[in-house]
Amino acid sequence: MAEHDDILSDAERKALAGVSAPVAAAQKPVVLIVDDNPVNRQALSLYLKSHGIECMQADGVKEAEFKLHYEPRIALIITDLRMKPRDGRVLINKVRASEKAALSIIVVSGDTDVKEAVDVMHLGVVDFLLKPVDLGKLLGLVKKELKIE
Hints:
- The chain has one domain (27-146): 3-Layer(aba) Sandwich (Rossmann fold), CATH 3.40.50.
- The protein has 6 helices and 5 strands, in the order H-E-H-E-H-E-H-E-H-E-H.
- The chain has helices spanning 10-20, 38-49, 61-70, 88-96, 114-121, 135-146; strands at 30-34, 54-58, 74-80, 104-109, 127-130.
């Protein structure tokens, strides 16, 4: 008798794997809110969460990069443009140069001019919203990007 006789054939194993494997729950997409102002970050997060949208927060580019690396459910970034020590353009450029280049990004800023807004739009962002943010418009954009009705 062979040392390791297989009880099941490959076909039987395959059939049983399909029956006995648990069905993975659909993972809910996450919005990453990046702003060095904790009040702005928290307000956007609470607003979106009140509409059933899961959020994570990052206080700047470095923390955002870390979360993007370790959280595969991030489907959308909402980022401020003016942050210290690195601004939102740095984050956008890093995302566009990474394996997550197709990630949807919405920019919010309280201090900008038309040229800067156009330059940022050329980086492939979904939209550029001025602060104070029109929350209804932001919610509509988020739902559209996440394909939520």
